[in-house]
């Protein structure tokens, strides 16, 4: 140990604790850096936090004591490197998890998600979503509780992703257009009740599935490092959008911003449940692809899976190719309008849109460039989302947020 010894200290633990008193305010920021992969070593952590080496050491030790990270004091030195290598920081393999839940038009999925967006376990469920949200929310929470029993992990809280705008602060699903739920269903409170009833401790949250996908991709996936990140994605039905500005979701005044699904991209097009016609929601989702290609959707697997399979395995069928081009053109038109309004520095596409981009990236980029003022320079990168189950990972981020804000209070109450 170096530096002045604290007169009260009787050993390294107390000294670390004293240093931690000075570093407590950076425990959350330190955890966020390791969580998002931006602090692989203690030296980087020290530099990023702008604290002394001793304070960074105490902070890392406390996060390790909380079971959140591992500090490897003896990492192998790279061949030819000078001096002692810095302590390596990694996320604890057996640390706590968040319970993540997602409801979609074809059923639900539960998952346990650790720090770093790591999916520890997941369980899908196929069921016809009842008009009473408590039914499917009960099913998904039960599936999550079973995963917790099987793994024996500690749970920090629960997050729910739904295919609807969620009004804040009340947590109401305002427009669950592809579910039978009544508009304005109190999904957050219902979810929280089911979580408590299952004996799971910690807070419960709910938000729109595409908002959560964007948050997860910004922290762990294709959106890392973007300042004005636009995410557009198809769920199993419909189209959603989200914007992450300087690392925070732009949710508007009451949680309802970025309802991009109801941009008109085909004025003479299909009638939309919103009352309009030719919206992105009905012109560029999996059902639109199947029907445009002349295929009848089957009941065996989800519409999203059927749409992806069509693009991946039957693209040499001229009807499928033409349908894909039609959807790409309509998606591109919608993106072009968004580029003009929002001036994003990156666009990421999820769900079926990710597969459409993979299928013909040049066509989509050309439509956006041709039809938008700011797209003409080709300056807006359009990338595929990279995370599996990004809405679930994002739902877990909601539950992790209190820990990321203040790890000691969230995990020990002190
Ligand atoms: Zn519409």
In whole angstroms, how far apart are the ends?
Answer: 27 Å
Shape: globular
What's the count of strands?
14
Strand fraction: 15-25%
Average pLDDT, all residues: 91
Uncertain spans, ≥5 residues at pLDDT below 50? 1-12
CATH class of the largest domain: Alpha Beta
What is the CA-based Rg, rounded? 23 Å
Q: Report the total helices.
A: 15
Q: What keyword list fits this structure?
A:
single chain, 414 residues, alpha/beta, Arc Repressor Mutant, subunit A, Nucleotidyltransferase, domain 5, 3 domains, 5-stranded mixed β-sheet, 15 helices, 42% helix, 17% strand, globular, binds zinc ion
Topology:
Layout lengths: L11 H12 L3 H9 L6 H8 L3 H13 L3 E4 L15 E4 L5 E8 L2 E7 L5 E8 L6 H19 L3 E8 L3 E2 L4 E2 L13 H11 L6 E5 H12 L7 E7 L4 E7 L2 E2 L30 H4 L2 H7 L10 H11 L4 H25 L3 E5 L1 H8 L1 H11 L10 E3 L5 H16 L1 H6 L2
């Amino acid at each position: 140990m170096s530096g002045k010894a604290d007169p009260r200290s009787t050993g390294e633990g107390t000294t670390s604790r004293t240093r931690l008193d000075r570093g407590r305010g950076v425990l959350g920021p330190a955890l966020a850096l390791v969580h998002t992969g931006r602090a692989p070593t203690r030296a980087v952590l020290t530099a990023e936090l702008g604290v002394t080496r001793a304070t960074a050491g105490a902070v890392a030790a406390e996060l390790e004591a909380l079971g959140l990270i591992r500090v490897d004091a003896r990492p192998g030195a790279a061949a030819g490197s000078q001096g002692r290598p810095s302590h390596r920081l990694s996320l604890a393999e057996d640390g706590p998890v968040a319970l993540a839940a997602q409801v979609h038009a074809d059923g639900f999925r539960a998952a346990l998600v650790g720090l770093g967006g790591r999916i520890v376990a997941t369980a899908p469920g196929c069921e016809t979503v009842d008009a009473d949200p408590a039914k499917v929310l009960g099913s998904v929470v039960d599936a999550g509780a079973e995963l917790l029993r099987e793994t024996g992990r500690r749970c920090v809280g629960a997050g729910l992703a739904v295919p609807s705008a969620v009004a804040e602060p009340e947590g109401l699903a305002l427009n669950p257009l592809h579910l039978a739920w009544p508009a304005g269903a109190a999904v957050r409170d219902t979810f929280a009740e089911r979580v408590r009833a299952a004996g799971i401790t910690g807070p419960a949250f709910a938000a729109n599935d595409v908002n959560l996908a964007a948050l997860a991709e910004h922290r762990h996936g294709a959106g890392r490092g973007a300042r004005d990140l636009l995410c557009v994605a198809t769920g199993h039905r419909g189209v959603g959008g989200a914007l992450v500005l300087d690392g925070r979701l732009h949710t508007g005044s009451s949680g309802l911003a970025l309802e991009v699904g109801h941009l008109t991209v085909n004025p003479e097009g299909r009638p939309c449940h919103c009352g309009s016609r030719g919206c992105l929601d009905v012109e560029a989702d999996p059902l639109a692809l199947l029907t445009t290609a002349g295929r009848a959707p089957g009941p065996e697997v989800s519409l999203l899976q059927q749409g992806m399979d069509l693009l991946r395995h039957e693209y040499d069928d001229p009807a499928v190719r033409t349908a894909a081009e039609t959807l790409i053109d309509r998606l591109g038109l919608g993106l072009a309008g968004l580029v003009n309004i929002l001036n994003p520095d990156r666009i990421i596409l999820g769900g079926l849109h990710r597969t459409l981009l993979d299928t013909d990236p040049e066509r989509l980029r050309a439509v956006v460039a041709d039809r938008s003022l700011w797209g003409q320079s080709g300056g807006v990168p359009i990338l595929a989302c990279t995370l599996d189950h990004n809405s679930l990972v994002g739902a877990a981020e909601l539950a992790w947020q209190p820990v990321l804000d203040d790890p000691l209070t969230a995990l020990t109450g002190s």
